[in-house]
Amino acid sequence: MFDLGALTSGLVIGLREGVEAALIVSIVLAYLARTGNRRYFGRVWLGVAGAVAASAMLGLLIFVTVGEMPAPYEQLFEGLTLLIAAGIVTWMLFWMRRQAASVSGQLRSAVDQAIGEGGAWALAAVAFVAVIREGVETALFLVGQATAVRASNGAASVLVGALAGLALAALIGVGFYRGTRRIDLARFFRWTGVALVFIAAGLVGQAVHEFVEIGVIGLGAATAYDLNAVLPDDTGVGAFLHALLGYSATPSWAQVIAHAGYLVVVLAFYLRPIRALGATRSAVSRTTTTG
Fold first, then answer.
1. Segments making up each domain of the chain, as ranges
2. Measured between alpha carbons, how far is 207 from 202 in angstroms, rounded to an integer?
3. Is the separation of the CB atoms in 132 and 55 below 8 Å?
4. Which of 9, 26, 32, 227 is the most exposed place for a label (fewest CB within 10 A)?
5. Could you tell me how far CA 190 lies from the centroid of its own chain?
6. Beta pairing partners, 223
7. Which of 2, 10, 14, 3 is nearest to 238 (CA)?
8. Each residue of 89-129: pLDDT tens digit?
9. Confidence class for position 150, pLDDT limits 50, 70, 90
10. Alpha-carbon distance values, 251 to 13, 220, 225, 246 (Å)
């Protein structure tokens, strides 16, 4: 029986991160086709396959390693894994938000350089490097989510959801390659990014819970509230929210503060208009020049 919350979180992660990788591959393939270099398609797919395999092995290795550790090292490693996953995803969300407009040009420049230097195998490296970044991020995030719901046997649900999301992402990539423009990618990335922020906040809260559990964090270890009588986190809607967003019926004050603090700070910066950031940079640059 699948855990709906874990399944949904895996689907969102796989879809959001998979679309980024699919678009990268589509841009490279479309550019090769447009320049009469279809003969290099095989090298690109080889690089993609290598990146996918490496990402999967990394994720599996980390997940299995965590499960074999004795307490309290298991909780400590789980907490660190959750924080690393949330941190990398947060960084990549902001990186993609800033670099989206120039990614296509950078990829085309790398492809031109690889072909120009006569190293066809360099195209495999271009595809590998471009996809491995998304693959490692996805693997760490999925491991973090699977680790967070391990107690409720939700790891398999996270994986199934992620595979479904990746399949949908592949279809979007095919549509992009064939010229389909029905999907507003800017809006898609914006709102799936917001969804990932909420999921990452749950990972941060779960990481703090692990640290409180083994005494690494002592301040704020007292229980903030108890909602077990109203919305327990091990059955029904509560279990769904726990797997998807890291909901806890009896969180510590440290967990509540970390969860809410992450949401407020990251969402405030993520939803801030890019133009405003660019204008601020320009103003600073002008001030520095005139000063």
1. 4-277
2. 9
3. yes
4. 227
5. 13
6. 252
7. 3
8. 788 788 777 766 566 667 677 777 776 665 567 777 878 88
9. low
10. 25, 10, 7, 10
Contact predicate 210/76, CB 8 Å: yes
DSSP string covering 251-281, please?
Answer: -BHHHHHHHHHHHHHHHHHHSS-HHHHHHHH
| Residue 186: its H or E element | helix 185-213
* CA–CA gap between residue 213 and residue 159 (Å, rounded): 27
Q: b vs e for 258-270, b when ≥16 Cβ sit within 10 Å of the residue's Cβ?
A: bbeebbeebeeeb
- Answer yes or no: are the C-beta atoms of 10 and 158 closer than 8 Å: yes
Nearest alpha carbon to residue 249 among 228, 268, 235:
228
User: What CA–CA distance (Å, rounded) separates 49 from 4?
Assistant: 29
Q: Please provide the distance, in angstroms rounded to a whole number, between the alpha carbons at the two ends of the chain.
A: 66
